[in-house]
Each structure stands twice: as structure tokens, then as C-alpha cells.
Amino acid sequence: MTSEPLNSRAVSRRPQQNYSLRTSESTSAIRCSQALRVIGQDLEARGIKTFVIRPEADFYVVEAGYQSPPAPTPISLHYTLDDIERLDHEERERRDDDAVVEDFLRLSQILRAIGSYVTCKEARLLSVSNNALMGAMSVVRIEYETAQGEKVVDDRSGFAIYDMCVSFYRLRGSLSVKHVRNTHWAHL
Length: 188
Prior knowledge:
It contains 5 helices and 6 strands, in the order αβββααβββαα. It is an alpha+beta fold. The protein has one domain (17-175). A 6-stranded antiparallel beta sheet has the order 3-2-1-4-5-6. α3 crosses α4. The protein is globular. The termini are far apart.
């Protein structure tokens, strides 16, 4: 639900309507990890450093900023499911699969791992942000709701996020999500 196309790198205004959190039926075509990876790629291209990402109705809302976290997030972006699919298709066309080297410090790979983590928990993402502090250390805050309705706030340091990325990279492609749920991530 953008006021301008995302491919023009324009910033859209936040809609005035109040949308409820998305349901799994409305986004079944796009996995959380895929959506977050694509959003991360677009944020990287825009030079965004600080973000809060929330899934709503049929789109994702990103409040963002160009300064390193913690920082204000004066920019509001909206990614519809169609935007995500289009951006994903465009990125796949640009990328040479033979030359791809995973960089776990890239925002797109971090967000992909977080999406996989939430999916493995059989949970629903409420938000992900890099604008939180734990003491003096910046952390990534993952908020999700379990199948039992419990809301969880999971703060992860840079080291923990990197470990998550490496672990999911090793599991990706060789195991299905059902198998991943039975790994050490299931108890986290």
C-alpha cells in the first residue's frame, strides 16, 4: 500500500487507517524469511541503518533512519506482498547465482535468518528492530507471538545474530522447516 512505487526509491507516507496484524492466510504465498530478506535488500540499497519492521494486514511497515542505531526513524516505508514479489524477482534477475557468496553481516541475510527463526518457532512475527539497547550494547529485538498466544521479546547481540545466520545457512536447502523444528533451535 505505497503511495509511490518502491522501485523509484521513493518514500511513502503511512496510511491513515489502522490495520490489524496480518494473518497467516493473507501472506501464505510469501514466507516470513523471504519477505524480510527482500525488505533487507531494499533497505541496504537505500542506505538505511536503523529500522523497525512490523507486518500488518497485507503489507509490512518499516520505520527507518539513515543514522546508526539507536537513532530516530523518521522514514516510513510500506511493502505490499506484490512489492516484495516484484523486488525479489528483480534481485534474482540481477544476481549471478554462480558468484553468490553469503555475507552474514548483510542486513538481508540477518533478516532472512530472523524470519527462519520465527518460522521454526511456529510463531507469528510482531516486529523486528535494531534500535534497542541492552546496557550500552546495541541489540536486535525480535518480537513474536507463539501458537499458544504468548508474546515473546527476544533481544539478540551481534554475536548471537551472526551465529543464527550461520546455523540457518547450514540448515537451509538440506532440511525442510519440519526437520529444522527438531533441531537445537526448537528450544530457544
